[in-house]
Design a protein that fits this description.
The protein has 136 residues and is of the alpha+beta class. It has one domain (5-134). Helices cover 16% and strands 35% of the residues. It has helices spanning 29-36, 50-54, 76-80, 86-89; strands at 5-9, 17-24, 39-40, 46-47, 65-73, 100-107, 121-128, 130-134. The chain has a 4-stranded antiparallel beta sheet with strand order 5-6-2-7. Strands 1-8 form a two-stranded antiparallel ribbon. The chain is globular and about 45 Å long.
Length: 136
């Protein structure tokens, strides 16, 4: 049986890693997809999604985005269940006062965002621990 060695690492130069969290209410999974869908021109240039435009996100690593649609709830643990690194989210004491059915996470993204009158709510940033499996 293969031995696995796991180590905790933080994002870049021993800085804590952050994840930015948005939550919202959509009619269904298709609406969440439409809201976050990125299209491309004939030349291959990306056209920002409604989500990106609404929050003026600018450049970020789109490979570090996770999103999901769930049953409507105000339970943070349920909303964040099954996301990468969710075990470290539970230490954050994040509290929400509304019910949501959709979550968007962007890892290693820290930027001031305008939060007024948007389709979804910017909940905030929390720290998380990356776990890297060293199989060498």
């Amino acid at each position: 049986m293969e031995d696995r060695v796991c180590q905790k690492v933080s994002g870049g130069n021993d800085m804590e890693s952050k994840v930015s969290i948005w939550m919202g209410l959509f009619e269904g999974e298709e609406e969440l997809h439409k809201y976050t869908n990125i299209e491309y021109t004939e030349n291959g240039d990306s056209i920002p999604s409604e989500f990106e435009s609404e929050f003026s996100l600018g450049y970020y690593d789109r490979a570090l985005v996770e999103k999901k649609f769930v049953k409507k709830t105000s339970d943070v643990e349920t909303l964040l269940k099954n996301f990468s690194y969710n075990e470290s989210f539970q230490k954050s004491n994040l509290i929400i006062a509304k019910e949501y059915n959709s979550v968007i996470l962007i890892y290693d993204f820290e930027k001031a965002v305008d939060i007024k009158d948007k389709t979804i709510d910017f909940i905030g940033e929390i720290t998380y621990q990356k776990i890297v499996e060293d199989r060498w």
